[in-house]
Amino acid sequence: MAHETNHDATAALHALLDGAEGCGPAARAARLAQDDELADFLCGVQDEIIGEARRLLAQRAAE
Fold this sequence. Notes:
Elements: H1 3-20, H2 23-32, H3 36-62
Helix pairs in contact: 1-3, 2-3
């Protein structure tokens, strides 16, 4: 992968991680509103996004 393309992909993954952090407060708000289904969904999405983004970042760092 070209250096600039790799940099762009890495920047996009970091932006995705930043966005995933917003799921935590949203999940807490849903929990306070007693919407456990939404809270569980948001927590699951956050965990999945963070895990996959970290995996992809590690893969790109090794390239």
